[in-house]
Design a protein that fits this description.
homodimer; DNA-binding; elongated; 11 strands; alpha+beta; 35% strand
DNA sequence: GAGTGGTCTAGACCACTGT
DNA sequence: CAGTGGTCTAGACCACTCC
């Protein structure tokens, strides 16, 4: 065989992807080890490793020390989803962004919120409800609880001008977050706020962010009817 | 300063994350270059590069040649969520998986489908509707169009026993996909299939997969009411 | 024990881009 | 032009895990 001479990890990656997609390497099959591939491609093992690692991260390959690298039988493909800053998302579409605070108060959160944020029994939390508008039309309703023990400064902010969304991004770093998507039937309260029809199906994105073991904030973003959250593989 | 001696890229990453989260490096600020950090940490530049690259991929840092590395002003955090194999998702929760084919026919797809799949004017496509059940309860409804020009073999398969989901994963590789998440109000047809209440809000995951510039399949997965798709940051 | 992937190192050159 | 990140190389050692 003539030497292939693939010099960049991207070229190596594409060659490997080609062999997987063309079924030259079949699902479940063991592929050659890094050293052999490096020799075949005429490059360093490090380069092959980088390519294999990227593909494995996308779910198409499964790697285990000593056991080698296999083509995944059931590739669990991974999509990366960017969490948008709502203002940017709207302005990027050349629509006019506006923000309206609906309510802001210190309350005892309901049990479900306490559970999701792992809050102790009876403390209070800051409850903020606000609307984000695109071209003067309700775009998303932000319903948020903030752990005031973790971020006491938040009590000094009236979220009249700046959204809690943006303030927290800039002032309350987090180390991890849980996200879930679901759908909700529009109730009377939401219908009033969002100016939509009672009973409409609205997509919801819920997010809890943590700094270590301490919950920072829990937010439900309820989008207007018909909204789609996009991503790609 | 005493040498820090961080020896692995994970340690370097954690140290860097600490400096970002503690605001020792503030949003928008330029951080030292790789060579200086490598010297400070007492490791190779490659190791620092690996750590910085991972953080940049998560959205917390922005890197440009010559311009250097900055802490992101508005960190667009990226969540990766894995596209589940429905059977696995159900079985992983120790529930009994079942599959029922509802319909399978060669049809002229509606304009919206043709547009999303970039199909030529008047060809037909395979339309498959099926239910996935968990413990004998409808879990998700799969409504799928398959491009028979791209995958002619698909015409030989009656999807009576194996779901199109699994058959395609094993037989029709793709190079990229578009995904969108939204919500839909349960209509009569869905209510009958899914055994839910008319008017319920149901979460929908839509996916189009491509092999190069050719669309392979477009699928709408409509989940039962209350279902949540999880991921984490 | 031995084979595989995971990572580190030191040095080098290249690609991009701000000044 | 010069400074920065992006990558490649060759070699080395380690960590894990299958046999």
């Amino acid at each position: 065989m003539t030497a292939l001479a693939l010099n960049t990890w991207q070229e190596v990656r594409d060659e490997l992807l080609g062999r997987i997609n063309s079924r030259r390497w079949k699902p479940g099959e063991l592929i050659p080890n890094e050293a052999d591939l490096a020799e075949e491609f005429g490059c360093a093992r490090t380069t092959v490793n980088r390519a294999l690692r990227e593909i494995a991260e996308s779910g198409l390959l499964e790697r285990r020390r000593k056991a080698g690298t296999r083509v995944a039988l059931f590739p669990v493909r991974k999509a990366t989803f960017s969490i948008p800053i709502i203002r940017q998302e709207i302005e990027d579409r050349n629509e006019k962004y506006a923000y309206v605070l609906v309510s802001r108060s210190l309350e005892t959160p309901p049990a479900s919120v306490r559970a999701q944020m792992a809050l102790p029994g009876k403390g209070k939390a800051l409850h903020i409800v606000a609307l984000h508008l695109a071209n003067a039309t309700p775009y998303v309703c932000e319903d948020r609880w903030v752990n005031v023990d973790a971020i006491p400064e938040v009590l000094d902010i009236d979220f009249d001008q700046i959204s809690a969304n943006e303030w927290l991004i800039a002032h309350a770093p987090f180390t991890r977050g849980d996200i879930s998507f679901s759908a909700v039937k529009c109730d009377e309260e939401l219908a009033g706020r969002m100016n939509t029809v009672l009973g409409d199906a609205l997509p919801i994105l819920s997010r809890t962010t943590w700094n270590g073991e301490t919950a920072i904030t829990l937010v439900d973003l309820t989008f207007r009817a018909g909204h789609r959250l996009h991503t790609s593989l």
